[in-house]
Amino acid sequence: LASTAYAGDFFPNPEEEFHSKLADKNDNNNLTGFKNDKVDELIAEYNICFDQKKRIELLKEIDGIYNVVHPESFSIARNYIRMMWWDKFGYPEWMFERHRGDQWGLLKYWWIDPEKEANLEKAMAAGEKLPLAPLDMKYWPEYLKSQ
Hints:
Strand content: under 5%
Number of strands: 2
Shape: elongated
Number of helices: 6
């Protein structure tokens, strides 16, 4: 039994984990040494396919073939960020970058808002609380629905 975790491309790349050309090489993601001609054909098709629904079906077929040979239990990727900050920053409506989905975008897109900073300092000096901002910021799912 092994637990592995990957971080990688925004779009899945089955070649990195399942292509036969990597099975006998060291230092890659084909950890089980998996080789399968049918999967290699599906990967070749996936690499030139522009239909997102078809790509999903190809990935499902690849996963199915792989799991017959090497059963795996896949876990859930957490598509959210938990953050806490002093309420002195301004930020864009989307808060974080969509393509990476991590907190480091705040270094590029957030700014210190002088009005918010003054309100925070005043509240702290008086021992008061500021109004609570929204707890869940779900810009991207709503944005995608509107497209």
